[in-house]
Amino acid sequence: MRILLLGATGYLGAHTARRLRALPGAQLVTGGRAAGAGLRIDLATADPADLGAALRRLRPDTVVNCAGAVGGGAVRLTGLNARGPAVLCAALREAAPHARLVHLGSAAEYGACPRGTSLDESAAVRPVGLYGATKLAGTLAVADSPLDAVVLRVFNPVGPGAPADSLPGRLVDELRRVGSHGVVRVGDLSAHRDFVDVRDIARAVALAAVHPTALPRVLNIAGGAARPVREVATGLAAVAGFRGRIDEGGAGSERSAAVSWQQADIGAAARALGWRPGIPLADSLADLWSGRPVAESAA
Prior knowledge:
The protein is α/β, with parallel strands linked by helices. It contains ten helices and twelve strands. It has helices at 11-21, 48-58, 74-95, 130-143, 167-178, 198-210, 230-240, 254-258, 267-273, 281-290, and strands spanning 2-6, 27-32, 39-40, 62-65, 100-106, 148-154, 156-158, 183-185, 192-197, 218-221, 226-228, 245-247. Strand 5 (100-106), helix 4 and strand 6 (148-154) form a beta-alpha-beta unit. Helix 3 (74-95) runs parallel beside helix 4 and helix 5 packs parallel to helix 7.
């Protein structure tokens, strides 16, 4: 099986690449802007015809799209998150219509939901801010296409290698900077989020990539339980041996203020893929702090 992975150098993409390479009989080809990629492509600017020609040469059985942006301004967000999936779908329709497409969406597409409730895939989508809106546009492009496609709607990833533009990654950087004492300044941490280990996400992608039959258009990939964001801060402080103070008086994000609760119903992923999260949040935080990707979750 030949698998084309787009966005292999990103946080989710790197873990996904490791998991896909371990699949029996898999031949992994990476695609992206980085030197050394088997397919040099930038979905934000790619021409559908040129991408189609490249796909005809590669003849992938499955295409996994981990390419995307969480920041960098409106042009970057719309280019990678909205235009990119639409271009990819158009190229696949012409050049590889029988390939499976696995696209990574985001919980930001949902927006707010009532406290104490769970979001299943039929829940209303009301994104707060441009990031969620652009991710939703990408999901719609994939879900409305005639391709054999599935969108894995990923909730809050955590675990080894979390980038500095995520709360866990930023907290690790701050804790290393101040040492065992001092003050770590953050925004309000009272919001509840559904955290899922990045290695569990990669496992879900691998299961979707090789699944023998068509899958539902959208599947939630999450831990299945809302936790106070404060647990991430206190958990990292504990594994770091931090004895200073966490100050929540800093400026918080617009989305945290507008979306105080998110919890996923992950029953559909269990039924369709046989997938459930396997790595506890405490292990995700310990591995993030140590920098070791350690044991993958079991199947």
